[in-house]
Design goal:
The complex is a heterodimer of chains A (768) and B (398). Chain A is α/β, with parallel strands linked by helices and 768 residues long. Helices cover 35% and strands 25% of the residues of chain A. Chain A is built from 25 helices and 32 strands. Chain A has a seven-stranded mixed sheet with strand order 1-11-18-17-14-16-15, sandwiched between helices. A seven-stranded parallel sheet of chain A has the order 6-7-5-8-9-4-10, with helices on both faces. In chain A, strands 27, 28, 29, 30, 31 and 32 form a six-stranded antiparallel sheet that branches. The longest helix of chain A has 23 residues, at 641-663. The radius of gyration of chain A is 27 Å and the shape is globular. Chain B has a seven-stranded mixed sheet with strand order 1-2-7-6-5-8-9, with helices on both faces. A two-stranded antiparallel ribbon of chain B has the order 3-4. In chain B, α13 (326-339) packs antiparallel against α14. Classes of the chains: A alpha/beta (768), B alpha+beta (398). Chain A binds chain B through residues 168-172, 174, 431-432, 435, 442-446, 460-461, 463-464, 467-470, 472, 474-475, 477, 479-486, 572-573, 589, 623, 693-694, and chain B through 1, 3-4, 6-11, 13-17, 96-103, 105, 128-130, 163-164, 167-168, 223-224, 227, 230-231.
Chain lengths: 768, 398
């Protein structure tokens, strides 16, 4: 069955269509073309023609032109619009003219790098082997490394390897740095938040090294749609960029559907699980032989979905191998095999976290099912765009879950369609990140007085590091004075450098089956946890905290586990405060202490709670930045202690979710907690903190947009159809109590000075 | 909160320098060297002239002069045609770390050279980071006066490190161009890998050269000690390091001599089975099978452990087999079976010999069955191949 037929079938099904809140047809669009420019080397033009390319898409031609003029560019066009030509053409052109020239390609993942090298190898063969392309990553064998350093015209790597393997050994890479003409950065939008802030500093270090060897490379970047490609590009590479965002590639018609699972418990406002609904939708598509990708929000969801889908296919007598999971925790060989099977059609349904959102070529997927809103508009468009190539119809379905953000998006499709993508934000001057990279930079080359690092004057920090005896200042230079190799202690991707290994001990074997980062360890692999891997369940028998190992055993049980996180928070410093008679809002530094005390066992399908267990693991501390607001005690006098508690829990539940929408970041980047009488303010207080040490600027933004945040939260409560609180607004009544919605609403209105002490929450009735 | 206070809060506290209560003593009094000026500034040089008759372990330093180049080629090294040890420079660095990378500095570079009646050790010290250029300049001058560098593990450590240092200092490293480089570690491994648990310089000193260091500073303490010196300027902190470096360099000179002593032994002169075995390997690699067999025979007579004897017999049998001397080879395999009746390889080789060369299928059949019995016992991966062989032999037998 083709997409058109399937679409017809499901849109004629009233039971399905009852849950559709939005249907939109993105029309197909013909391509915009330009001739291959004259200045391109004849052999390159001939090569393109041999590949059947007699003209270029407009954005490809514009890229070539701009690079020719010596500019840094950021190409912003959708998935599968021929972006790779935008950098490969100018790079290969230069390499053909000058054999000594070098280019450095940075990809955020190894999988992307491998795809790229395969493509460049094919080009090189056509050009008589003149373009020597190598991947340089953690998997590169030792004896190959030497050849790559001296002979590689194009070195393909990732920012992590540049950070820990290449820059600290720059003398071995002299040939590369002396002759570096281009730095290609693919998927620029991925480098945002903490990761982006790190990478911006790695690029500052790259500039220093290039300057030392006398080169000044041009940057060619590509990005998914973001609101601020120019600012973001400039912030990341530290130089002005020209944005090329007119897409000249043709595209097929795409049908977008928003699906809201039906309410199954009206009094509690509980909707049917988005996992179950997504499974049903995906089943329908895959069973009709439509190659389908299902995106899940977390690793856990991925595994649960694969289990459900395989069982449902098993029931109808189909081979379960058609369904595969794909996620970051898998070992590289496993991932490669899945990618191959997808391309060869041995796999028809793939369930993934956002790993496949990036531009890995996985052939002709025709439908995408999104289990839950991916958190950002940019991400949503990328996931929706994963299905469908240039000239065929495709289908994308967003299945909402009960969270406030999801319900907001699904009930306000205009917000999604009109708003456009969000901005990518970085804060390269986050003190933690900056100090880490100043250390690495000082290791690479001594700092000279008055030398700038990006736009930062690092003198005070360098002096501090000298005081700490990590650097030594002699005359006008700071030198590295430590036996350690600083880059190994700094991970670009998370606060914690060390991962915990999960070891399968079933039948007396000992095999590493996966890894979990330190911060997630108490949540995912505490003793007693059920860890899901490749749809198999593993019981964590023992967690060795010291040695960072979890010993697991394969089991077959009908439940999964979910751990609770308790957070305590202490204010260390206030950067800004604004007091009004009704609210005090603040922005500053805090110490967050997180501890998991217990976990719940939740039964499959019914999702009922069937037991619990204790978790005895050390608490984890984090020094970060937060935004918080407090309300004077006398203003909440009408609320008794329980009602106030309920108002705080409800408001923080909602605000935490809404803040990520406001900031356009991942909800997981933020934590939220409330204190009924904060030791710092002495008043009821709600804190929203950043989950990265030092923060990357989100709390400052929340401080500034405080009122809009409260108003949006209030509007969600008022528009939610539940009577007294549900997961889509203030949280389930088990957590906020029967008056949760009224209490929270009254509390938020009080802050906005819309309520007085004469009115108590019980009088309040939700607006229609 | 100002930036520095914030930094103090953010970052875990390190050990701060405890300023020394004593005013820094004059470095010259403690280290007995002198400041030297170069076009790139000053640094500190300590020179020690060691008389040739001075004992260092079993030998005198002067023995180090008795080295002939052809004995080095045997070990796969490439000394210059007219190699004379007087023209060579021994080199050893002390560094601010072992992890490598561009942030590791060679703060002390020691060199050794035979000059008429003395072995002269010159040590170039940077008293602080700003003296690196001067140190490198002087070392380059030394290197320009020689055609051969002799190091211990310098191929992987010292010379790449110096290369990095010169590159970062933007000095041309003329001295390192067109040098022959003899790495004593590589040579020592060829001779004593099987005899010694470790071929570190310390282990070689203790087991081969008869040198026992007392109060020697362990290598891992050196960077920390140097950083302490930078903070406190107490020259005493460096005394142990300089002494350690001198011993390293003198030991290298003796070790070179000791290595050539061994390489020129004839099979009859050997007195150590491991060395004889190693010499056999070297004879083999230059294609001298007869000599290799003689060394192995000497090794077999010297050895006291059955395990080693069996290993020697196997090597010997293999040489005969490759030379198509099947009778000699099979005699050796039989001898192995007398020492160890479960030797799978010997059974297998004999079975091949009887099947293909002697054409005695009955014996081949019997030997293959014996081999299989051993293979099953030890769960050897050779089982399928042996089963295959057995069925083929039985087919031939009819």
């Amino acid at each position: 069955m083709n997409v058109e037929k399937v679409l017809e079938k499901i849109t004629n099904n009233p039971r399905f269509m009852r849950n559709i809140t939005f249907q939109h047809t993105l029309p197909g669009q013909p391509g915009i073309y330009e001739p291959i420019p004259d200045f391109l080397a004849p052999e390159l033009t001939e090569l393109l023609q041999r590949k059947g390319i007699n003209r270029l898409y407009s954005h490809q031609a514009q890229s070539l032109e701009a690079v020719q003029q010596g500019r840094n560019i950021v190409v912003v066009t959708p998935t599968a619009s021929g972006k790779t030509l935008c950098y490969n053409l100018p790079v290969i052109q230069t390499l053909l003219e000058n054999e000594e020239a070098r280019a450095l390609y940075l990809f955020p993942t190894k999988a992307l790098a491998q795809d790229q090298v395969a493509e460049l190898m094919a080009w090189s063969d056509e050009l008589g082997g003149r373009i020597k392309t190598y991947t340089y990553d953690g998997d590169t064998p030792g004896d190959a490394r030497k050849a790559i350093r001296s002979a590689g015209s194009i070195v393909v790597t990732n920012p992590d390897m540049l950070h820990s393997g290449i820059l600290p050994h720059h003398t071995k890479w002299m040939r590369l740095f002396e002759n570096l003409k281009y730095v290609v950065i693919d998927e620029l939008h991925i480098y945002r938040g903490v990761f982006g802030s790190h990478v911006a500093n790695v690029l500052r270090r790259l500039h220093r090294i290039c300057q030392f060897y006398g080169s000044n490379p041009q940057f060619i970047c590509t990005s998914a749609t973001i609101a601020n490609p120019e600012d973001h590009g400039k912030g990341l590479i530290g130089q002005p960029v020209k944005v090329i965002d007119q897409n000249g590639a043709p595209r097929g018609q795409k049908e977008i559907l928003f699906y809201n699972p039906p309410v199954v418990n009206k009094p509690l406002g509980i909707r049917r699980s988005s996992l179950l609904e997504a499974e049903a939708v995906a089943h329908e598509l895959i069973a009709s032989n439509i190659p389908t990708i299902v995106f899940a929000r977390s690793r856990l969801d991925t595994e649960v979905l694969v289990t459900y889908l395989r069982k449902s296919f098993h029931r109808i007598g189909e081979p379960v191998e058609k369904i595969r999971a794909y996620r970051g925790g898998y070992l590289p060989q496993q991932r490669r095999q899945i990618e191959r099977d997808l391309r060869d059609g041995k796999v028809l349904g793939v369930v993934s976290t956002n790993a496949l959102e990036l531009g890995i070529d996985i052939g002709t997927l025709q439908a995408a099912v999104l289990t839950g809103y991916p958190g950002t508009i940019a991400s949503t468009w990328q996931q929706l765009g994963r299905a469908g190539r240039s000239n065929e119809q495709s289908l994308a379905i967003l299945v909402a879950n009960s969270s406030p953000v999801n319900q907001f998006i699904i009930q306000n499709p205009d917000y999604f369609m009109d708003r456009g993508a969000e901005s990518a934000r970085i804060n390269p001057n986050n003190l933690h990140i900056l100090v880490s990279h100043l250390k690495c930079a000082a290791f690479e080359l001594p700092f000279v007085q008055r030398e700038l690092f990006g736009d930062v004057d690092p003198q005070e920090i360098l002096d501090f590091l000298s005081e700490e005896m990590i650097l030594r200042k002699v005359e006008d230079r700071w030198y590295w004075m430590s036996e350690t190799y600083p880059a190994v202690d700094i991970s670009l991707r998370s606060a914690a450098t060390e991962n915990f290994a999960i070891i399968d001990t079933t039948d007396g074997q000992r095999k590493v089956i996966g890894e979990v980062d330190r911060f997630s360890t108490p949540m995912l692999i505490h003793e007693g946890a059920i860890y899901l891997h490749e749809s198999r369940q593993y019981h964590i028998d023992h967690l060795d905290w010291e040695r960072q190992k979890a010993y697991a055993r394969q089991v077959d049980v009908d439940y999964y586990t979910d751990a609770n996180l308790a957070v305590d928070l202490k204010v260390l410093d206030v950067f800004a405060t604004e007091d009004t008679p009704h609210v005090g809002r603040h922005w500053g530094e805090v110490m967050v202490v997180a501890k998991t005390h217990m976990y719940k066992k939740i039964k499959f399908y019914t999702h009922e709670n069937i037991g619990w267990g204790e978790i005895a693991l050390p608490e984890q501390e984090m020094h970060t930045t937060a935004y918080w607001f407090s309300i004077p005690n006398e203003l909440v006098e009408p609320l008794d202690r329980d009602s106030l508690q309920s108002a705080l829990i409800g408001s923080s539940h909602l605000l935490g979710n809404i803040a990520s929408l406001e900031l356009m970041c991942e909800p997981s980047d933020l934590g939220v907690t409330a204190q009924i009488r904060s030791p710092f303010t002495g008043e009821p207080t709600v804190y929203i903190y950043e989950k990265y040490p030092g923060g990357v600027g989100f709390s400052e933004q929340l401080f500034e947009t405080h009122e809009r945040l409260i108003r949006r939260a209030l509007s969600i409560i008022e528009h939610c159809s539940c009577p007294s609180g549900c997961p889509s607004c203030v949280g389930p009544i088990e957590e906020v109590g029967l008056q949760g919605k009224d209490n929270s609403s009254w509390f938020l209105r009080r802050i906005l000075d819309l309520e007085s002490n004469q009115q108590t929450p019980s009088i309040f009735t939700p607006a229609k | 909160m100002n930036l520095t206070n914030k930094l103090r809060q953010f970052l875990p506290q390190q050990n701060r320098a405890t300023p020394s209560p004593n005013p820094p003593a004059d470095l010259d009094l403690v280290l007995q060297g002198q400041e030297v000026f170069t076009p790139f500034g000053a640094c500190y040089v300590v020179q020690k002239n060691l008389p040739l008759q001075k004992k260092h372990g079993f030998w005198r330093i002067g023995n180090g002069l008795e080295v002939e180049s052809h004995n080095l080629k045997v070990l796969g090294q490439e000394p210059p045609e007219d190699f004379k040890v007087e023209d060579a420079l021994f080199l050893d660095t002390e560094t601010t770390g072992l992890s490598g990378g561009t942030g590791t500095y060679a703060f002390l570079i020691g060199t050794g050279r035979f000059i008429s009646t003395h072995f002269v050790v010159k040590q170039f010290l940077m008293r602080d980071y700003n003296e690196e250029l001067a140190v490198l300049y002087l070392v380059d001058q030394e290197l320009q006066k020689t055609d051969t560098v002799i190091s211990f593990n310098g191929k992987t450590f010292d010379l790449p490190l110096l290369h990095t240092r010169f590159t970062i200092s933007r000095l041309s490293f003329q001295g390192a161009q067109n040098h022959h480089h003899l790495d004593l570690l590589h040579m020592a491994r060829k001779l004593w890998r099987k005899k010694l648990e470790s071929c570190s310089l310390n282990s070689l000193e203790a087991n081969i050269l008869g040198i026992n260091r007392t109060n020697d500073i362990p290598g891992f303490e050196i960077p920390g000690r140097y950083f302490q010196f930078l903070q406190t300027r107490q020259g005493e902190l460096l005394q142990d390091i300089l002494q350690h470096n001198v011993i390293d360099i003198v030991s290298m000179a003796i070790l070179l001599y000791r290595i050539t002593l061994t390489t020129k032994l004839s099979p009859e002169e050997c007195d150590c089975p491991w060395e004889a075995e190693a010499l056999a390997q070297m004879a083999l690699s230059r294609g001298d099978h007869q000599q290799a067999i003689s060394y192995l025979e000497a090794a077999r007579q010297l050895c006291t452990e059955t395990e080693q004897e069996i290993s020697i017999l196997h090597q010997n049998a293999l040489i005969h087999k490759r030379q198509a001397q099947y009778d000699q080879a099979s005699a050796l395999w039989r001898r192995i079976l007398m020492l160890n009746e479960d030797d799978l390889v010997a059974y297998e080789e004999l079975a091949k010999f009887y099947e293909h060369k002697a054409k005695d299928l009955g014996a081949a059949d019997q030997l293959t069955r014996r081999a299989l019995a051993v293979a099953w016992q030890t769960k050897s991966p050779k089982i399928p191949a042996l089963e295959h062989r057995l069925s083929r032999i039985e087919r031939k037998l009819g």
